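Have a close read of the entry that follows and walk me through the local backbone shapes. See right below:
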Amino acid sequence: MSNSGAKQALVAILSICAIVASLTWIYFTQFAGPKINLALHRAVGEVMAEETNKLLGNKGQVIVLAVGPGAAPELPAQLTSFKEKIRTLGGVAIKDTIFLDTEDKPKFGAGRGLSARRFLRLMKKNSGADAIVSFVGAPNLSEADFGELEKARLPKFIAESGSATKLKKLFDKRVLQIAVVHRYQFPAPNKEHPKSPRDWFDKRFQIVTAESAATLPASGPE
């Protein structure tokens, strides 16, 4: 091969490498999903199922609230684990899974996005269910909202919440019975590196009930 041909071949190879590198960068920065801790999020789903089952006395029907993976990539792992655990425990049945329309708004995700208006509508529409299990947070209700709920028969409410603030009033008004929240009490029970899904859960999340709601952080001024 002549020097001219060798140079052309080298240029072609370098060009191909540059294109591959560019495409790889574009894929990982624009299209590849975020890295998800599957052990952690499967544990969240399992705990939500266990707490739901315990609250309902191993019987009844529940409505599940969620959003699609585009808004919450970790949610499929949580939902799959929740449904598997519910089936394993027996007794409680999932009547329906409602995927909320996010309208591409960034406020929606795992543990967040459920508005007061939508919550009120869903509570009234599904008053025959024994519980509503929300993987999209808990609403921030006004006094008027609480007054409206007093007139209705309410299903029990279990929620995953990204924030522990503004939950105490929901507990005080007996609208919310159980919350699975990002950990706000430290140190976590296990100080070592997590070895099991439940270890991951205890490190990053905690369970709040009506009995422990007094430990919730203050919500601050409205």
Remarks:
- Confidence is low (pLDDT under 50) at residues 23-32.
- The first helix runs from residue 3 to 31.
- Strands lie at 60-66, 92-99, 131-134, 156-161, 178-182, 205-209.
- The two ends are 77 Å apart (CA to CA).
